[in-house]
Request: fold
Amino acid sequence: MNTINQAFGAVGNAVGSYMPLVEIASGLIKAIVEVYRVTEYNKKICRALAERVGITVAPLELKYAKAIVVKEKFEKLTEDYDTAMKDLNFTLVIANEERRKNDEIALSEDLAEFEKYLSAIDSKADNIYEEGNLIIDVVNFLILWRKELLRDKK
Reply:
């Protein structure tokens, strides 16, 4: 009986020294599982935001394309008008030429401002997309790490 008690005591001493490590490992695993759940949620949010950015950028690009078409039509009509005036031997007044130049400058300035606006939106969309990809990479890393921990635990 005495040897049985000694054997149980030795086992208890051996296992007892590992208990703090088991508790630490258990706490780490719980923390990893919680981080994993949060990152999965963040991953879904990032995907939704990236889709919204894509949906927002498309109409702006269409508006920019329309603005370019309007500019080209404006320049063509101005050219046609000037040619018609010359063909009909009308004397163009300097003021008309000046007005045409001013209109052209104003249109160019408007397009330049619109292009800056689109560039700003485009860079913000790129940043959101890159941040979303970074979060997805972290989530994938945590998933692999969790699988590795669970595999090592078995």
Notes: Residues 2-87 form the longest helix (86 residues). The domain at 2-153 is CATH 1.10.287 (Helix Hairpins). The chain has a mean pLDDT of 78.
